[in-house]
Amino acid sequence: MSMVQLSQTNVLPRRTTRLRGRMLPYLLSLPALLVCIAILVPFVTAAIYSLQRYRLNLPHLRGFIGVDNYIDFLSDPAFWNTLRISLTYTALTVVLELLLGLGIALLLRRPTRFHNAVSIALLLPLMTAPAIAALMWKLMTNPSFGILSYLVSLLGVHDFKWASDPSSALFTVVLVDVWVYTPFIMILLLAGLRSLPRQPFEAAALDGVPASFVFFRITLPMLAPYIITASLFRLLDSIQQFDIIYAMTQGGPGDRLMVFQVQAYLEFFQYTNVGRSAALLMILWLITNILSNIFIKNWLRLRARAHGHA
């Protein structure tokens, strides 16, 4: 083989290798690109529908109306009721689950066999589908034969209506949400607690620092990024809650639990108003985006402060 043929033979593999090296980043990012497209297509479609008068039972009236759907919501008391209930439900569930999850995580922070077994057992509610959990609690809170109604009657509270009474409906669905999702907060904070450095706690123990001072001045500041992360995940899920509320009350009694997702569902499937349903979901997206940005900014600020002290 001549020198020219040999050099040509060596050039081809090098070109193929360089081409593969250039194409590899694009091939690796292809799944992420497909996921983005799969997310953006429904989002853009909903945004377009929200700017239209679009009812499935009146297709001949379909047309572009701009932001009229959004303006109608501003003058609709039902919308403000939905906004109030959604934010109230979100605040109650996130705060209660955060407090309970933090308390349980503190009790189980030592990695013993017993604590590990208890933490695994506490994850069982999280493995239950929210709709199934809601139906289970609906049976347990039935005023006629529910086990929880019977237990409450032993305490002297008779004929407690639970989710069928407007005064206790919110309490009932919040109770179910807390039962299902508190283990999620617990496992995140438990992982955070067990990953904290031991030196500050050992130094505080040697100096005889009170436990309250250690908790508020050492544990909580170091655990703050984990708390914000767990709260953000639960906030994004709670404000979009549908399964538990619809399975238990369908948004009732009346409009007592008419949160965004339930209202959008009813607008689409019951009233066949695609435009208003899409507009509701776009408003929900805007609220979620604002709240998540607030949490992320605080998380970045805490991380920057921690790196500054490091």
TrEMBL record:
One of its GO terms (biological process) is transmembrane transport. It is found in: Cell membrane. The chain crosses the membrane at residues 24-49, 87-108, 120-140, 169-193, 205-228, 278-296. SUPFAM superfamilies: MetI-like. It is a multi-pass membrane protein. Keywords: Membrane, Transmembrane, Transmembrane helix, Transport. It comes from Bradyrhizobium frederickii. It holds the Pfam family BPD_transp_1. Signal peptide: none annotated. The keyword Ligase does not apply. One of its GO terms (cellular component) is plasma membrane. InterPro entries: MetI-like (IPR000515), MetI-like_sf (IPR035906), Sugar_ABC_transporter (IPR052730). Its main location: membrane. The keyword Transmembrane helix applies. This is Sugar ABC transporter permease. Gene3D superfamilies: MetI-like. Belongs to the binding-protein-dependent transport system permease family. Residues 83-295 form the ABC transmembrane type-1 domain.
